[in-house]
Specification:
Helix 1 (about 35-45) crosses helix 3 and helix 1 (about 35-45) packs across helix 7. The protein has a two-stranded antiparallel ribbon with strand order 1-2. The chain is built from 7 helices and 2 strands, in the order αββαααααα. Strand 1 and strand 2 form a beta hairpin. It is mostly helical and about 180 residues long.
Length: about 180
């Protein structure tokens, strides 16, 4: 997964992005009653808009993806330019939210158990060692081995994307509720 480095270093803050325009929310066929139900439905819909390019083996937004999904992807990328791993994490996040994950974190070990995946993540972007450094600092210092440090960094970015996606979907669900 190749990506250009971002202009700004990783900040570690989840920002749900700019406010949504009033008419830029998806419309579902079934009525949604509670905010968690709306968030879950939005995540299910969002999950349908990422498609794997089988030639390059990367995820990309589908051609038919609506503007709100494009904005969700921009928010989830933060200050990072479009990035293959971020799209993977967006898919992981919307999948987990669609399956009912609320405040729970998604499981890095369940999604990416192999060392090769973790090292590919680390090598794919110049900001990624910063996630490892921040995660180590949050733990009070680096763990005893490099692979544990890489796992901490990868989990930190995965969690950041999950929180960005969830915050944006919650904002969209609130807008739907206000419109009803």
């Amino acid at each position: 997964m190749n990506s250009a480095p971002s202009e700004q270093p990783h900040t570690g803050r989840a920002d749900p992005g700019p406010p949504l325009p009033p008419n830029d929310t998806p419309t579902g066929d079934a009525p949604m009653t509670t905010q968690p139900d709306r968030v879950q439905q939005l995540a299910r819909e969002a999950n349908s808009y990422l498609k794997r390019d089988t030639v390059r083996d990367i995820l990309l937004p589908a051609d038919r993806a609506p503007q709100w999904f494009t904005e969700l992807c921009h928010v989830a990328h933060g200050s990072m330019m479009p990035d293959d791993w971020r799209y993977e994490f967006i898919q992981d996040a919307v999948g987990a939210i669609a399956d009912g994950s609320g405040e729970d974190r998604i499981d890095l070990d369940g999604l990416y158990p192999y060392t090769a995946d973790r090292l590919a993540w680390l090598a794919s972007h110049l900001d990624r060692p910063g996630y490892c450094d921040e995660a180590a600092a949050d733990m009070g210092g680096p763990p005893g081995d490099i692979l544990a440090l890489v796992a901490l960094g990868m989990d930190a970015e995965l969690t950041e994307v999950f929180e960005l996606v969830r915050a944006r979907l919650e904002d969209m669900a609130d807008k739907q509720e206000d419109a009803e």
